[in-house]
Predict the 3D structure of the following.
Amino acid sequence: MDHVLRVMGEMFPDAHCELNHRNPFELTIAVLLSAQCTDETVNKVTKDLFEKYKTPADYLAVPLEELQHDIRRIGLFRNKALFIQKLCQILIDEHGGEVPEKHEQLTKLPGVGRKTANVVVSNAFGVPAIAVDTHVERVSKRLGFAKADDSVLEVEKKLMRLVPRELWTETHHRLIFFGRYHCKAQNPQCEVCPVVEFCKEGKVRMKPASNRKAK
C-alpha cells in the first residue's frame, strides 16, 4: 500500500475534489447531484445553479418543478430536486441553515449517504475520511486491497485499516484520479501502469491473446 500510494502521488500530485464549490453547503449539493453522474456534468449545472441559489432558503423559495428544470441535465433530477428541498428544510429547522460537521448528522439528511458524508467532512471540514466511489472501489479490488465481492462499506473499512488516518483524504483523491484517468473501467492503461505487478486483472490483460485463448 505504501508503495502504491507513493506511485499514485507521483502520478497525480495535485489530486483533489473536482466538484466546484465555495463552501460546505455548495459541496453537499454538488456531491448529492453527482450520484450516477460525472463531475464534469455536475460542474456545468452548478455553474448557474450556485449563482441562482446561494442559501437553503433560496432552494425553498421556488416551486419544485422550477428546481427540477434547473438541474434537468443531471441523472435522476426529479428525485434529487426533492432531496435538495427536503435537505434545505432540515438545515433551516435543525441546524440554523448551516451544514452540520458531524458525520452522523450528515447521513440523516435526505439524499446524503455515507459516501457523500465522507466527502463533505473531509473536504469541507478537514476530517480525515475515505469516500468509496466507483473509481475507489474498482482500483481497490483490482490491486487486491479488497476482495472482488466486498461491499462498498467493506472496501472502506479495509482501506482505513491499511492507510494511516492522516492520509485518508489524500488517498481518497489519489485513488479517484488513478481510477478516473488511468485505471479506467474500460480500456485501463495496463501497458504503461507502474503498479501492474500487483494487479491480477492487469496481468491477464497483458498476456498475449494466444496465451489467453490457450487457457
Notes: The CA atoms of residues 142 and 201 lie 6 Å apart. The chain is about 60% helix and 0% strand. The chain has a mean pLDDT of 93. The two ends are 31 Å apart (CA to CA).
